[in-house]
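Extended Data, panel c. Modelled sequence:
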Amino acid sequence: TTVAAGLSCALSKVGRHVVAVEADLRRPTLAEQLGTGRGHGLGDLAASGSEGISLQSTGYSSLEVLTAGLPVGRAADVLGSTLPRVLNELATDGRTIVVDAPPLRGAPESSIVVAQTHHVILVVNNDQTDLDTLSDAVARINEAGGVLLGIVINRVPRRKLRRDAYPEFSERRKSASGSGAQQLEAPSWSDSVTGDRPTTQVP
C-alpha cells in the first residue's frame, strides 16, 4: 500500500491526473495514507448496485481516491462485480489508474485485480520472500494474464546498502588515494533511492 500511495503521489506531482483505487478490501489503508476518509467506495457500489462512482479528494489537486468503501460480502465477489466497470469508467480523460491490490498469496481475489489491470508492479518484502516464493508470484501474475512491469524490494535494511557494494570503485579509490591523486568517491546506492518522497502495493 505504501508503494501504491507513493507512486500515485509521484505521478500526480509530474502532472498526471491520477485515480488511486483501494482494492485491498480486507485491509484497506490506502485512503488513510493519502489523507482521505473511507467514503463511498467499491463495497457500497456492490451493495447498492448504483452506477455512480464517488471519488475522494486528497491534498494533491490531480490525485483522487476510490476507497474500499463499506465492508460487505466476500472480497472476490465485490471485486468481480464492480472492478471491471469501475476501471472502464475511470480510464477516460487521460487518467492514470493505480490499484492497490491484496497480496498474491492467501487472497484469491488478487487474480481478479491482475486480470483487470493487466500491468503489475510486484512488491516483495526483503525479509519474507525467497526465490521460490518470488517465482510462484510471477507465475500467478502470468496465469492471470498480467504483464510484470517491475519488482520493488521493500524493507531492505540500510546496513546492507554498503559503500563497498561496488568493489571496482573501491579499488580505484584506494589506487587514487595511494598515488596522491584526487580521491574517488564510490557511489552510494542509498543516496540514489532515498530523499524526498511521499509516504506510500501493487502486486
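The chain is about 40% helix and 15% strand. This feature is highlighted in the accompanying rendering.
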